[in-house]
């Protein structure tokens, strides 16, 4: 425990030293009054800061690690309290692996088994028992299983359980009150023999979860079709790309935020064109974060820093702006079935609906954690019923409203399990009403049905995402996502 904390402290101290070093460099440059040095420093530091500000994410996993650690201490305290003797284990939930048939399916009334292999912070197998593990098979209504955790005293535990009734349930496994990697799992309980049924389609999980060598429950599948781009300022290169749109004419549009432009590609990834001039006047772009295509072909761009939404023709000719003087920080845009422009104002925590003329139709939302409130909304999508789907970044949830802004449903909570989020960003809806969400802090994409039930991940094992932002569905039915931290966009197949 001490060595883990020490390592973390060392890392933090190193980072502090680097920041101090750069601060004093900047200070010296400013004091010295050498204009050339100031200019040089200004550029470097400015770029670093804007990159840090817009990405921020890479730090997130480290924070999570630290949280794990706190929980571990909590668990220890509990052990000490309960047993009156000091019991230690270095098992952490985020590394611990689970396997066994009982994870996916079982038969009513028959004993099922799940094997839990505890691992420490760096992924090494734990060799001793005594960790506090809990398991729960439940519906929203409550628990539906009897079972117990058996401590094999060598770091491995078995959860043996029997379910009372047929149905689709959630199986939650926690170590020191924290979800074990991949938890909660989706469990299908049948009355037939499980062997006679084909495996449920659409339930995919990360391959690393099931790394028991003799039996791969879910082999690594890779849904990636291609990726385009590297960090840079030229055509086909990106600097902190954010929003993504796709249009029926087979085009993919990317809001290349720190390059102040929009780049357009074909569905197969060929560069087509780009437009955008940096600036703060109408027709110029300062920080394009959201992009959408109107059914009439116009390209709609949310400009976070100019605090308005710009409309360009399909050829990139400036036409008009809307929301000026009203919007505080527009991040995502979408277009509803009436051709209205949906704008997600991240700073104001409000969703605005405009006519393309700029006339306000309605608005809803304020800052908060209530159903009709937002704690940092990012992107919007509209489904076939003209319902509006909003990602709420700091509430770690997705909220659905009707066209009048009445709350319909929400799903998601903070965590790493199936259906949980660590700051959701991009969102899109397919023709079947399935909702696809970029899970920024967990660097993954999740697919839900229209009622918010988790269906699958879009797998990224071979070439992982790093802080995904906007996403959209291409006209040929693939998912295109802005892989912001990797400065590229990626196209995936899904639910196949
Ligand atoms: C500070 O500057 C050094 C040298 O340019 C660089 O390696 C380091 O990453 C910088 N650190 C931060 C926090 O910007
Ligand atoms: C732990 O003990 C069980 C039962 O004795 C055994 O089957 C299993 O292989 C052991 N696991 C490890 C990792 O040693
Ligand atoms: C469980 O989910 C599957 C689809 O995922 C569905 O076909 C089946 O009817 C569901 N079973 C119950 C009992 O709800
Ligand atoms: C999200 O909002 C719900 C209420 O709708 C609240 O219970 C929950 O604590 C919020 N989550 C976070 C992480 O703020």
UniProtKB/TrEMBL annotation:
<dbReference type="InterPro" id="IPR050952">
    <property type="entry name" value="TRIM-NHL_E3_ligases"/>
</dbReference>
<feature type="repeat" description="NHL">
    <location>
        <begin position="272"/>
        <end position="315"/>
    </location>
</feature>
<feature type="repeat" description="NHL">
    <location>
        <begin position="361"/>
        <end position="404"/>
    </location>
</feature>
<dbReference type="Pfam" id="PF00630">
    <property type="entry name" value="Filamin"/>
</dbReference>
<dbReference type="InterPro" id="IPR013783">
    <property type="entry name" value="Ig-like_fold"/>
</dbReference>
<dbReference type="InterPro" id="IPR014756">
    <property type="entry name" value="Ig_E-set"/>
</dbReference>
<keyword id="KW-0479">Metal-binding</keyword>
<feature type="repeat" description="NHL">
    <location>
        <begin position="452"/>
        <end position="495"/>
    </location>
</feature>
<dbReference type="GO" id="GO:0061630">
    <property type="term" value="F:ubiquitin protein ligase activity"/>
</dbReference>
<keyword id="KW-0862">Zinc</keyword>
<feature type="repeat" description="NHL">
    <location>
        <begin position="316"/>
        <end position="357"/>
    </location>
</feature>
<dbReference type="GO" id="GO:0000209">
    <property type="term" value="P:protein polyubiquitination"/>
</dbReference>
<feature type="repeat" description="Filamin">
    <location>
        <begin position="88"/>
        <end position="189"/>
    </location>
</feature>
<dbReference type="InterPro" id="IPR011042">
    <property type="entry name" value="6-blade_b-propeller_TolB-like"/>
</dbReference>
<dbReference type="GO" id="GO:0043161">
    <property type="term" value="P:proteasome-mediated ubiquitin-dependent protein catabolic process"/>
</dbReference>
<keyword id="KW-0808">Transferase</keyword>
<dbReference type="Pfam" id="PF01436">
    <property type="entry name" value="NHL"/>
</dbReference>
<dbReference type="GO" id="GO:0007399">
    <property type="term" value="P:nervous system development"/>
</dbReference>
<keyword id="KW-0677">Repeat</keyword>
<protein>
    <submittedName>
        <fullName>Tripartite motif containing 2b</fullName>
    </submittedName>
</protein>
<dbReference type="InterPro" id="IPR017868">
    <property type="entry name" value="Filamin/ABP280_repeat-like"/>
</dbReference>
<dbReference type="GO" id="GO:0008270">
    <property type="term" value="F:zinc ion binding"/>
</dbReference>
<keyword id="KW-0863">Zinc-finger</keyword>
<feature type="repeat" description="NHL">
    <location>
        <begin position="408"/>
        <end position="451"/>
    </location>
</feature>
<feature type="repeat" description="NHL">
    <location>
        <begin position="225"/>
        <end position="268"/>
    </location>
</feature>
<dbReference type="InterPro" id="IPR001258">
    <property type="entry name" value="NHL_repeat"/>
</dbReference>
<dbReference type="InterPro" id="IPR001298">
    <property type="entry name" value="Filamin/ABP280_rpt"/>
</dbReference>
<feature type="region of interest" description="Disordered">
    <location>
        <begin position="189"/>
        <end position="214"/>
    </location>
</feature>
<dbReference type="InterPro" id="IPR057750">
    <property type="entry name" value="TRIM2/3_C"/>
</dbReference>
<keyword id="KW-0597">Phosphoprotein</keyword>
């Amino acid at each position: 425990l001490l060595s883990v904390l020490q390592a973390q402290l060392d890392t933090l101290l190193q980072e502090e030293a680097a920041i101090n070093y750069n601060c004093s460099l900047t200070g010296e440059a400013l004091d010295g009054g050498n204009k050339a040095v100031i200019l040089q420093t200004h550029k470097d530091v400015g770029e670093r800061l804007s990159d840090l500000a817009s990405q921020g994410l890479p730090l997130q996993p480290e924070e999570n690690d630290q949280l794990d650690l706190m929980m571990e201490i909590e668990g220890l305290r509990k052990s000490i309290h309960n047993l009156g003797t000091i019991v230690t284990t270095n098992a952490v939930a985020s590394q611990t692996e689970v396997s066994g048939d009982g994870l996916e399916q079982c038969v009513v009334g028959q004993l099922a088994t799940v094997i839990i292999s505890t691992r420490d912070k760096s992924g090494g197998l734990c060799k001793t028992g005594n960790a506090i593990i809990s398991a729960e098979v439940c519906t929203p209504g409550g628990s539906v299983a009897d079972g117990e955790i058996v401590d094999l005293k060598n770091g491995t535990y078995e959860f043996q359980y029997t379910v009372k009734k047929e149905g689709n349930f959630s199986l939650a496994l926690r170590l020191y009150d924290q979800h074990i990697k991949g938890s909660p799992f989706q469990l299908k309980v049948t009355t037939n023999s499980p062997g006679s049924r084909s495996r449920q389609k659409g339930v995919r999980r990360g391959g690393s979860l099931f790394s028991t060598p003799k039996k791969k429950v879910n082999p690594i599948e890779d849904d990636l079709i291609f990726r385009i781009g590297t960090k840079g300022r030229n055509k086909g290169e990106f600097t902190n790309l954010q929003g993504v749109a796709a249009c029926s004419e087979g085009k993919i549009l990317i809001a290349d935020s720190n390059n102040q432009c929009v780049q357009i590609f074909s569905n197969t990834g060929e560069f087509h064109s780009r437009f955008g001039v940096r600036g703060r006047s109408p027709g110029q772009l300062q920080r394009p974060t959201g992009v959408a295509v109107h059914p009439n072909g116009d390209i709609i761009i949310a400009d976070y820093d100019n605090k308005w939404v710009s409309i360009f023709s399909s050829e990139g000719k400036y036409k008009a702006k809307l929301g000026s003087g009203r919007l505080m920080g527009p991040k995502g845009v979408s277009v509803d079935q009436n051709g209205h422009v949906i704008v997600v104002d991240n700073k104001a925590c409000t969703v605005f609906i405009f006519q393309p003329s700029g006339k306000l139709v309605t608005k809803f939302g304020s800052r908060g954690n209530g159903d009709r409130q937002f704690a940092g909304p990012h992107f919007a999508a509209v489904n076939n019923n003209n319902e509006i789907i909003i990602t709420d970044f700091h509430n770690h949830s997705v909220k659905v409203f009707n066209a009048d802004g009445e709350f319909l449903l929400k799903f998601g909570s903070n965590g790493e399990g199936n259906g949980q989020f660590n700051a959701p960003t991009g969102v899109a809806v397919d023709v079947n009403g399935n909702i696809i969400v970029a899970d920024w802090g967990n660097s993954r994409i999740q697919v839900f049905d229209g009622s918010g039930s988790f269906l699958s991940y879009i797998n990224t094992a071979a070439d992982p995402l790093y802080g995904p932002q906007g996403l959209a569905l291409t006209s040929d039915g693939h998912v295109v996502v802005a892989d912001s931290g990797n400065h590229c966009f990626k196209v995936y197949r899904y639910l196949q």
